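Incident log, structure service

09:12 report received: a user says their structure output differs between two submissions of the same chain.
09:20 pulled the input from the user's history:
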Amino acid sequence: MARRVRDEHAQYARPSKRGTRPRTKQRPEHADAVTALVTGVDRGRYTLVVDGGGDDERAVLAMKARELTRTRVVVGDRVDVVGDTSGDEGTLGRIVRINERTSVLRRTADDTDPYERIVVANADQLVVVTALAQPEPRTGMIDRCVVAAYDAGMAVLLCLTKADLASPDALRSLYEPIGVDVVVTRRDDPASVEEVRARLAGRTSVLVGHSGVGKSTLINALVPAADRATGVVNDVTGRGRHTSTSAVALRLPVAPHGTGGSETGADTDVDGWVIDTPGVRSFGLAHVETAHLLAAFEDLDEVATACPRGCTHAADAPDCALDDWVAGSPDEAVRAARTARLTSFRRLLASRAGGSD
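09:34 re-ran on a clean worker, output below:
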């Protein structure tokens, strides 16, 4: 008779009867677990990348262990996995731990919804993709993405597409003064994508934007093997159709040296990750606190310490130290710079209670 092999995880993770409690509260150490990156989520199954060192990188399919049933695992998470992590066809590992997250990008359905939705974890840069035309840019949506990124402690890159149809100057002047980096691409200039690649190198970047702004087209140019579906903009509504249905993390290839790009899609190395997300039409900010947004403006944050208790820092806030800071400027040039800075902050502050257009 074959000897039964004891599963050290079973006593906690898989009770013998449905609805019963684990027979012990002492969780196994999972000393044999390997660490992996979550690159995709699909109906309770998680696509992971396990880095075994050197060339031993493999894709693994996994599910959550029972103890993580109520814990959400998202793209970008670093997780510990046990079971069969060979990546062979038909195998299934088990996620037993989520490592500490360095950042969490969140949004809510609207500004009154208390339920936070985690978009991605562990990204260090939010790339807001916005078309300069077809569809028209919506500064309200850009503002709200910037607020969410600042709240998560992430850097922001504004990627303006379709510059062959309209000038980017107005949006540049609106966002560069508040520390938002801006990069511009043209459909008639494939080389312009390489400037975007340079801004993504060595980082984990998540791309967010309205449907139809060219996000999937940009992803395909950066990662030729991605083959993300692209759509068109409705001539009547001016809105795009959702083509990406779920978030996915993709390795960012580095273009071969001296070419500025690869016509064949062959790549010499990899450098960083890009996370493509489904097109969004709203970005609720019910989870964002004023103090978190203010902290992104270091100069204003320092001045605001002199504000009266409970100050909202809004334009109609009485005795706000930020207004005194502007009024007390030593000369007109400094006053103009401070005014622009404060106006930008209050615009973002107002976006927390405004529409998501």
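09:41 both user submissions now match this output. Likely a transient worker issue. Closing.
09:42 reviewer note: Confidence is low (pLDDT under 50) at residues 1-8, 231-243, 257-268. The two ends are 68 Å apart (CA to CA).
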